[in-house]
Design goal:
Length: about 230
């Protein structure tokens, strides 16, 4: 079912301009854009400080980032979300609570390298990415080798990817891709809420919904050592 366009979408997007760093595609061909287009951000200029930067790919309505940014004001957060209807909700929540350390990119994840400098991100969060189980859509999965190659360029040496998912099948797929790509996988649990990591976990509305139905949440951390390009 297609999401209905939000009322007054464009004026509301314009009102969120102070926290929106980029929107749309620089050209129709994403591969061409990723290879040839550069509008690299200066995080010091964007945030007004030199604090570490962390990135959520697919931020949804912003529940995770809202809480994360409150808990860790000494960290700068970037949020990437392709759907304009969805990112608008996230931006309006951040602005309503006057959270100063979050900025947004309304772009496809394929072109993150057009805006984010290499080796500039400490942590990447993949919270409940769509599993896309169809074989024909494997390249679109956010933990496919295609996307991991993008993340590798963005991560600092020793940086990490933190993944949470309610899909055990997708989790198994992701673990295999992380290891193939040269990440060191740690902190693996197939029942997050019953694990040692539960206390620090931020439970989003989406996560709470699945947990209430008895579906266990899988979680892992994939650490990048920078040895492979």
């Amino acid at each position: 079912m297609r999401m209905r366009r939000k009322r007054n979408l464009e004026p509301r997007m314009e009102a969120c301009a102070p926290v929106l760093l980029a929107r749309g595609k620089p050209c129709k061909n994403l591969k061409e854009a990723a290879e040839n287009y550069r509008a690299l951000l200066s995080f010091e200029e964007v945030f007004g400080n030199q604090n570490p930067v962390e990135l959520e790919v697919g931020c949804g309505n912003g529940g995770f980032l809202l809480e994360k940014a409150k808990r860790e004001p000494q960290i700068n957060f970037l949020a990437v979300e392709l759907c304009t209807n969805v990112i608008l909700t996230a931006m309006e929540r951040i602005r309503a609570e006057k959270i100063p350390n979050v900025r947004f990119l309304n772009i496809p994840a394929e072109i993150l390298g057009c805006y984010i400098p290499e080796k500039s991100v400490r942590t990447i969060y993949l919270n409940f990415s769509t599993p896309l189980p169809e074989k024909s859509r494997e390249k679109q999965r956010l933990t496919s080798s295609r996307f991991l190659a993008i993340y590798q360029k963005l991560l600092e040496e020793g940086g990490s990817i933190v993944q949470k998912t309610d899909s055990a099948e997708f989790f198994d797929y992701s673990l295999a891709r992380f290891e193939e790509a040269g990440f060191r996988v740690e902190g693996v649990t197939r029942d997050l809420h019953a694990s040692e990591y539960a206390a620090e976990n931020i439970v989003t509305e989406y996560e709470a919904n699945f947990s209430s139905k008895g579906i266990p949440i899988c979680r892992c951390v994939a650490v990048w050592n920078g040895d492979r390009a």
